[in-house]
Amino acid sequence: MASLLKTSPNAVKKRLLHQIGLSLYNTSHGFHEEEVKKKLEQFPGGSIDLQKENSGIGILTLNNPSKMNAFSGVMMLQLLEKVIELENWTEGKGLIIRGAKNTFSSGSDLNAVKALGTPETSFNKCCTGSRSGIGWRSRSYYSM
């Protein structure tokens, strides 16, 4: 099973892990995928938009201009979905990451960070190291 997980695309890994009761999320801090999703969904706003060009170049747009493209909880979930989509895009050669309305990103929405990173939890660490394989990490990235 371990060798299958190392060599399979992430979509296949996710299905295999769910079949045996695990997920791509790191549960070492006591958080589970559904719990993480529920917490992040409490912070709506903005979107992560992906455009895939025929040339093999993807354009990922952080779209939350009213908050200088700060990441909301929902945007964090959407980013994970887009990364998985990109990892399975066999024609993909590179990725441009940009912000809407001439602003890249001011970081995370501080309201979400404050609510999720309380002293009682280590929620902000729950996804650290949760993604495996090189996938899109081996491709060229440009930010504008």
UniProtKB/TrEMBL annotation:
CDD domains: crotonase-like. GO terms for biological process: fatty acid beta-oxidation. Keywords: Lyase. GO terms for molecular function: lyase activity. Gene3D superfamilies: 2-enoyl-CoA Hydratase, Chain A, domain 1. It holds the Pfam family ECH_1. This is Ethylmalonyl-CoA decarboxylase 1. The gene is ECHDC1.
